[in-house]
Amino acid sequence: MNRIDFVEYDAAHPGDFVFDIPEGHDCWLLLLTQTPAIFLVDGEYREYPSNCAILYRPKQRIYYRASTDRYANDWIRFYTDETYVTTAPIRCGVPFIIHDPSYCHKLYQLLVSEHILSNNFKDITIDNLLRILFNKLLESYNYKAVSPLFKNLNELKLEIYHNPNKEWTVSKMAEKLNISVGYLEDIYKGTFGVSCMDDVINSRINLAKKYLVYDTHYTISEIVTLCGYRNMEHFFRQFKKITGFTPNQFRKSPYQLYKQEEKEIK
Q1: In whole angstroms, what is the distance from residue 256 CA to residue 211 CA?
Q2: The pTM is what?
Q3: Across residues 46-69, what is the average pLDDT?
Q4: 2-145 belongs to CATH 3.40.50.300
Q5: How many helices (H) and strands (E) does the chain have?
Q6: What sign for the dihedral angle of Cα 6, 10, 11, 17?
């Protein structure tokens, strides 16, 4: 689940701009630069070109400043427990070139709109936008080692998260891409940092969390089926392993407070 603290696009500052937070934020920070900038990386001040992304984890030292007469970026501070962020194979605190900055910029514009507005499905839309944004970041981050099958892999990953209740197996996914099971497992993990079946499990547990918090009229048994599980015990085991809660505990957990906070904001 995600909660945006603040998000902004086209934020502009003069040439003497410096952002220095030694203790870091208590949440995640993602920047997309529009101008060159100097970042503190591994104890050294290094200049990076425009159209770079940098991800800071909670409590990580943050330092960057303008390197020309103007500094501009898109940025978002957010809280999350989603694995596509927390286990993303991106080295935090190190900028990297974005290969489709205009696309990412549009995603920031949409995130700002969703954050400001009070739509009924605001949280789900924000989650989907962040997933797409992180997919684009991974595409750029892994650019040098990208597989010729990247487009197909990316489409498969998106389909997994859009249809987690589908009867996914590695053999069916490999057949879909017309490659062997072993090759699929190798290139999928090499591209995204997780196995294809881990993504299936994560997508199902993410869907289950949303049902538990936002669709309380569903019973646990119904949620098990809606999320693509055929075995209640298997679902309980995977849910507890990933979240640290049983489904019933999760439904009564602090995540309910997050739901209440959103209602109060609306």
Answers
A1: 12
A2: 0.58
A3: 95
A4: no
A5: 11, 9
A6: positive
| Burial (CB count <10 Å: 0-12, 13-18, 19+), residue 68 | exposed
Most confident of 94-98, 150-154, 188-192: 94-98
Domain locations along the chain: 2-145, 150-258
Q: What is the pLDDT of residues 127-139, one digit of tens each?
A: 999 999 999 999 8
- pLDDT score of 119 more than 80: no
State the burial class of residue 223 (Cβ atoms within 10 Å of its Cβ: 0-12, 13-18, 19+): buried
Chain center to CA of 78: 10
Phi, psi of 222 (to 5 degrees): -65, -40
Reference 134, options 165, 108, 173; nearest CA is 108
Q: Quick: pLDDT tens for 224-260.
A: 999 999 899 999 999 999 988 999 998 887 544 444 4
Single-letter amino acid, residue 196? C
Report the amino acid identity of residue 25: H
| Same fold: 2-145 with 150-258 | no
Contact between 164 and 228 under an 8 Å Cβ cutoff? The reply is: yes
Residue 218 tokens, joined = 């569903």
- The topology (CATH level 3) of 150-258 is Arc Repressor Mutant, subunit A (1.10.10)
Average pLDDT over residues 187-191: 82
The whole-angstrom separation of Cα 175 and Cα 152 is: 12
